[in-house]
Fold:
Amino acid sequence: MTSWVVADSGLYLTIVLQEPHAVKAAALVEMWKQLDQYAAAPYLFRYELVSVIRKHIARGTLTLKDGHTALQGLFRYPVEIFTDEALLQRAFELANFYNRPNAYDATYLALAEHLGCEFWTADLKLFNAVSSQLEWVKWIGDYVPPQEQNS
Structure:
């Protein structure tokens, strides 16, 4: 049986852009690999990656060359993409239930719910909005890598 984990684009962007929690995010992705867990994301995942990298280029925080390098690094991560109209319907329901301003984040919630697995996010606002009711939603800032657990 396949063991899944859902991770949002922000988690992978955190690693490549060396944002706060990059070390934790990289350790988490490595742990999934060691545990033979497969990363999953909704269809919009790769579009979000491209959009964020493009935004950094437009703002001048990344050069075009660095943007290309970042995208190449991001596309190397093995992430299974799911496209399903039923997931979109569920995302709409979840976005309404949790009063989210858009349904983007809810597509990740819907996918994790469908797969019955954890959803890891770099989005603290999303985590704070849903984690009290959805215990399978995890924030990267709370992750403690195994090598730090006994420290």
